[in-house]
Amino acid sequence: MYPWHGIWYLVSAEDGHPAPGPVTVGTETLAGQKPALAYAEATLSGAPVTVYSYSLDRGGASACAGACAVTWPPRLTTGKPKIAPTSGPNHIVAQDLGVTRRADGTEQVTYGGKPLYLYSGERYVFVTGALSYNGTAGNGKGLHGPNGGTFSVVYLSQ
Fold first, then answer.
1. First to last CA, the chain
2. Cα–Cα distance measured from residue 6 to residue 21, given in angstroms and rounded to the nearest whole number
3. How far apart are CA 9 and CA 142, in angstroms?
4. Phi/psi at 99 (5° precision)
5. Cα dihedral sign for 139, 141, 143, 146?
6. What is the predicted pLDDT for the residue at 58?
7. Buried b (16+ CB within 10 A) or exposed e, 19-48
8. What residues form DSSP beta bridges with 126?
9. What's the rounded Cα separation, in Å, for the pair 47 and 95?
């Protein structure tokens, strides 16, 4: 689990839905692999957190709700997502960033039309000899959702 034991959102007083605020995405490199899309603001340290897509999602609509969304929280946003200025030459295509409306009315970040998720069991990669971390391990890669299907890291073309 995350150090704060799950994903926390502010909650709207109007309807009780999460009120996450605008999202900034960036990149990270997972264990010598090519660049992967990451949520750039998920921790107080600003370390990137891996995001995933789900093989059962169709037509930009999320197939992950209920128990699935507890383990695989949707990356929610308010408004169009932005690219982190510190991502460097990150290969993120701005036109591929978007938003889809979920069945509960919240808005979920998409990339290339695919809804994006975090993994509640994500592990951090710690900096050698330091108490800080520089990103996550992407250890949700290839795991199955409760309804079948597979979660995959969103790799970027180089």
1. 31
2. 17
3. 26
4. -140, 145
5. positive
6. 95
7. ebeebbbbbbebeeeebbbbbbbbbeeebb
8. 133
9. 24
Side-chain-side CA neighbours of 97 within 13 Å: the count stands at: 21
**Helical ranges in the chain per DSSP H:** 67-71
Residue 66 token pair: 């209920």
Enter the DSSP assignment of 74.
Answer: B
Count of H-run helices and E-run strands, the chain? 1, 13
Question: How many residues make up the chain in this entry?
Answer: 158
Mean predicted confidence (pLDDT) in 90-118: 90
For residues 27 and 33, give the distance between their C-alpha atoms in angstroms, rounded to a whole number.
Answer: 12
Using the predicted structure, report yes or no on whether residue 149 has a pLDDT greater than 70.
yes
Maximum distance among all alpha carbons in the chain?
A: 46
CA-based R_g, the chain, Å: 15
